[in-house]
Amino acid sequence: MVMSAGRVDSRVHGNVAIVRKLAFGALGLVLLIASGASFYRHRHLEEPVVLSAGVTEVKRLGEYFEGVRGTVNDCNVYVFEGEEAGATMMVIGGTHPEEPAARLAAWLFAENAVMEQGRLIVVLSANRSATTVTRVGGAYPPDFTIPTDWGERTFRMGDRWSNPLDQWPDPEVYIHYPSRQNLAYVDIRNLNRTWPGRSNGTLTERTTYALMELIRREEVDVFIDLHEAELQYPVISTIVAHDSGEELATFVSMMLSDEEFSMGMEYSPKNLHGLSHREVGDYSEAMSLLFEAPEPFLDATRGRTTREQLLTGRDEFVVKAGEHGLLFEQIDEHGWPIDVRVGRHTSAVLMTMESWTELYPDRPLRCRGVPRYAAVIERGVGHWLRDPSMADAGRVVTE
Amino acid sequence: MALLQTLITTIYYGLIAYVVLILVWNLVRTRKWQNEVLYVIVLIPFLLRLFRLK
Predict the structure, then answer these.
(1) How many Å apart are CA A343 and CA A377, to the nearest integer?
(2) Each residue of A342-364: pLDDT tens digit?
């Protein structure tokens, strides 16, 4: 049987089309696997924590409220019982995991702190969900690596908001509970806009509710929320204090500015709701403070968003913005290295303990083992990160 | 609130699966190579979400 020329031509074209579709499909599959593997690695990267000799117990947030038990936000809670009695301080990092110095400063406490007087409670990943995603369209690096004396340690880079995979959809307008203040829709996934939380709310609201339960049940006296801020944001290099913590914050600000580095102090606005410095103070007995360190990586005018920029805090475009008077903090070609930012936080926390003890000598807080500002800058953050392979298996946990 | 979110999320993933099927169907049916490239590229974020990777 002889096939017509037209039918042969049609069959050849059909075969070519199938091969072409398969080729494009295979190319798409390669892109899907490559990007999917990168996202999966980021979401599941395990971060070891080598427990300091001072850690007496590692709890889970779910122990304080079952609404977060077993979820991505059922984070570790590190408890340091002091050798002598005293007050209780709680320090949280990872409220906004795109502010890595906050997590790293808390990490230095988890791996080094020993409480001589009083009790310390540390959380490294207050919003663990937000550590598993970076800003969509922001081209953030998925992780960053800190060189140490024994090698290196890699950490997840995160976002300001909970991962949409864990909490979705966002409403048109976010109505804060219980104030009913209208906030930006996306901030329903912002841990620092959902305090004091809601037991039957979203994952982020349930997380702040669980943290509030922890604060109330453990009778926390001083609560510190560690952050970083872009240099174009007016609340920077400062302590934001609830009314009940004004005297303490003023004392800390004066002492730090006199002895180590310039640190401001601001009052928590009474009519701005959902933030830890307002709601933790209003809904518990704790004095609530929030510390801000400068992070050029977050500035809208930054250049390429890279791991190097994240760690060095150097950016010529942010420097240029400073030359035009657009910044609320100084910056030059030396930038704001991660060591400086972490050192500011460790010193600020230690100074808060010392100032508290001055003000309330009958309930002291005294800690050893954690480096101050000058020491962190001199030796680098990595010097105080321990080698998990050299630690007892029972003294290593993952975040 | 949590129940409503779960309901909407379930519907959302159903919609994503439906869009994926439509895109694959169009990819098979189209005769223009430019459209084939377009459908493949558009499919990727839908599949990433469907597989809960991003």
Answers:
(1) 7
(2) 999 999 999 999 999 999 999 99
Predicted TM-score (pTM) of this structure: 0.93
Q: What are the beta bridge partners of residue B36?
A: none
First to last CA, chain B: 23
What is the ipTM metric for this complex?
A: 0.91
- The structure tokens listed for B50 are 């469907």
- The CA-to-CA distance between both ends of chain A, in Å, stands at 71
The two three-digit tokens of residue A210, written as one number = 């669980």
Question: Using CB atoms and an 8 Å cut-off, which of residues 25-44 of chain B contact chain A?
Answer: 27-28, 31, 33, 36-37, 40-41, 43-44
- Per-residue pLDDT of A115-131, as tens digits, reads 999 999 999 999 999 99
Contact, A72 vs A349, CB < 8 A?
no
Any idea what the Cα angle at residue A334 is, between residues A331 and A336, rounded to 5°? 60
Distance from CA of A17 to the nearest CA of B (A): 7
Q: What percent helix, strand, coil does chain B show, rounded to 5? A: 85, 0, 15
- B3 has a chain A CB within 8 A of its CB: no
